[in-house]
Design brief:
The complex is a heterodimer of chains A (346) and B (308).
Chain A (H helix, E strand, L loop, with lengths): L4 E6 L7 E6 L4 H6 L2 H8 L5 E4 L13 H13 L5 E3 L11 H15 L5 E4 L5 H13 L4 E5 L8 H13 L5 E5 L11 H10 L3 E6 L4 H11 L7 E4 L4 H4 L6 E4 L6 H12 L3 H19 L4 H9 L16 H13 L2 H4 L5
Parallel strand pairs in A: 3-10, 4-5, 5-6, 6-7, 7-8, 8-9, 9-10
Antiparallel strand pairs in A: 1-2
Chain B lengths: L1 H6 L4 E3 L13 H13 L4 E4 L11 H15 L5 E4 L5 H14 L3 E4 L9 H13 L5 E5 L11 H10 L3 E6 L4 H14 L4 E4 L5 H6 L3 E4 L6 H12 L7 H15 L2 H11 L16 H12 L12
Parallel strand pairs in B: 1-2, 1-8, 2-3, 3-4, 4-5, 5-6, 6-7, 7-8
The chains are: A alpha/beta (346), B alpha/beta (308).
Chain lengths: 346, 308
Amino acid sequence: MRSDHRHYTEVEKGAPVQSLVTERVADRADEADAPAQARSHRGFPRLRGVMQSPVTPLKDDFSLDLPTFEKLLDFHVRTGATAISWPHHKAESLNLTIPERKLFAEAAVKVVARRVPVTIHVSALAVEDTMALARHAQQIGADGILAITPYFWSPTREAIYDYFVRLATSIDLPVVSYNSPSYLAGVEITGELMSRLIERLPNFIGVKEASFNSEKFIEIARAALPLRPDFALVTGVEYLLPSVPLGGVGSYSAAGSICPNLCEQTFDACVKGEWVRARELQYKLSKLWLLFRDQYPSSLKGGMVIMGRPVGPTRPPLPTATKERRDHIEKQLQDLGVLDSEPYGW
Amino acid sequence: MVTAMTEFQPGLVHTPITPFTPAHDIDFDAFAKLLEFHIANGADSLALPMHAAESVSLTDEEKRKLLGFALKHVAGRVPLMAHASDSGTAIAASFARYAEEAGAAAVVSTAPYYWTPPPAMVLEHFAQIGSAVSIPFYVYSAPEDMAGAKVTTELTLALLKRLDNFRGVVDASHDWQFMIDVLTDAPRARPGFQLISGTEYMVSAAAIGSGSLFSPLAGIAPKLVRQLYDLCADQKLFEARNVQEELAALRQLIKRSGVAGLRAAMNAMGRACGGPRPPLESLESRAADLLNAQLRGLQGLSAEPRGW
């Protein structure tokens, strides 16, 4: 009995890409009893393609807007997201309370309803909150969790190792780590640390890699793939062109709520090795990333207003996009042809 | 002149080290052999003396002598790019002028050493060096060597407005966003603008649009480097991944001990160029033995030439 069938694409080392059908091979009942090793290889569809991490819709009073969140999740699934992951930093994760995060995590699992995998980002300032969010993700039936290296402190490599071991062994879910050295004062998962974690943790299945640097990406690939060939190297935003030829399998999307078509076309061109087309699309995506990275994620929320998908303000201390900022974004979207080629409204 | 400048494509650029005698003088006999080795083993161009060649440890007079010797010895068989970097703008500009007069095909410069001037003065530094010559001028972005200082897209665009002969950036930042930004904007300001991969991490750079490569490892593994370059130039990027990873493994091995490691590896390949100049130290014999053993363990090196 299979709960779900989906088409994924895969990039094999040294060979252009072939399409294949990856199936969720175990149904939920089987998975519940399966050891972590089996689940990470059998029960969890490989992460592939452009995965969406929705923003967090807020009402004008900054409270959570659940109906809009449900519409947004549905929008992402309908427009080609190969997986959903929430709440990344663009979803203002650190500005949400732990009960709020649990509430929306539950909504995400319920609304997506197994159409694509759902992973929950559990990173919080306090490690104990992270542990609680991970347990909660398992309780609500999420397909996996994502966790960054600890915030604020500059933990030693051993402390980072211990942190991930404690987190990953506390649950029976696949774990994706999140590497973002430029935002965390150089704290990172090096290739050597990656190897040790893979050897120790059968449920460690991938990394959200946000160094956006050839040397760091290659070191992680060299460390991870010989030990776990299906380990998923996912770039933090849509840097598909530089990562796919190195073994990258996709991205967690920054721009997917604005331009899902462009995201999908870029991934398609990359996995087919159509580099001239891929370059043109990637340049455009990167222009958009520069636009949204400025005052992230409020610029993204501002852009969503223009695309007919308003999701409300951004919680302080992050700014909310002003009318002037939105006008600037609209002009840029117009110049890049996004307004004519991407879906408007929900 | 403008036509020639437009046509200059560095291609695969080997960056030879500077051989030293036991007394730490430049060993010109070994240097001649090394230049021959690079030309015979796949260099489209040469660039010297780069940081791996300990440019910073050479006096201005030595650099001039080294460059003059190389130009005479190479005798036009491949183009030679001169590295003109210094703390003082006028000193670097003077060296650039010398390089052009001596016959160099191009000049490449980093941001000034030690100082951390405001962006407008970094621009001025590059503009003065570049305007001292009429041959193609390149800016070298090497944040790992330069305490994190990066060349930005803004600087690049501003420099394009100042200099007719500014042809491109040699990028050793490995930073995807910078590479994409600069190749999105700079060729609009100047068609033919070049992004040169500053190290052997070329696959991503080639995907983004780089067509040339500076290779410090070419003295160790010229065949692998050539293979990587040719696959990237043919846009066979999936096929390039294996050789990319082999060169990454080599680079990581050597990187741990820096210039001393590079020299020890040259020695292990049968191309002894002496130890580094002070303040750098040679690898201790135990560390050199370990590096030798590790190099022997790299399968990718098995087909590489030994000796001169």
